[in-house]
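Notes from the 1:1 (GR / supervisor)

We went over the backlog. Supervisor wanted to see one worked example end to end before approving the batch request, so GR pasted a single chain during the call. The sequence is below; no edits were made to it. Supervisor asked that the structure be written out right there so they could see what the output format looks like.
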Amino acid sequence: MDGVEQTNEGWRILIVEDDERLADLTREYLESNGLVVSHESHGGNAVERIRNERPDLVVLDLMLPGEDGLSICRRVRPFYQGPIIMLTARSDDLDQVLGLEMGADDYVGKPVKPRVLLARIRALLRRAGGPAGAEGEDAEGGSGEEPVRLQFNDLVVDRSMREAWLNDESIDLTSAEFDLLWLLARSAGRVLSREEIFTALRGIEYDGQDRSIDVRVSRIRPKIGDDPVHPRRIKTVRSKGYLFVKEA
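Structure output shown during the call:
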């Protein structure tokens, strides 16, 4: 529809949104593009629906009756590893950062543009387990073969399983956190700019203001045994970006 490529029909999406008109319009558009969409209007029911239905992706409004989106996101993360897109006020940077800190994978500003939401949904789901070849390009934009598993002493990152381990213990990562960790790890020894990271992970140009990459790095560091104050594994290179150190 509207020139959008039809791919991956059957993805199951749960929209948690109390604005019935917005939810209906969004659902109609997503369903016309091959997705299977269900809707929940009350925040108090969202956690159980996510637990029971296990959708492939959740679109979660921030302001909801019964329970707000931040609380829902925090509560479902221990058992739900699928992507979560938070709907936030376009100008509220604090809400966006809090959403990412609670485990959201991405956010879309309101009023929602259905085409933008569809693009974000497809990008997240392809990375989380979409068709083979979705991650075929390397960080330099080439098409050479990419390793499936990377190991750095006691840290192991496996792309095929989309899991990471530290000292043989599984690391609890959201889908977006894994994507960022893999991107940094596969480029170990090379500084990646925020622009490169943003484009690789979200498929859009970096606007210079978005803080999602910084928030995710701060969440990943302690999970991989890095010192948040004096990191040795993922270093911040001032005015340039981030460097994953091969031998930390």
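Supervisor's comment: The first strand starts at residue 12 and ends at 16.
Batch request approved.
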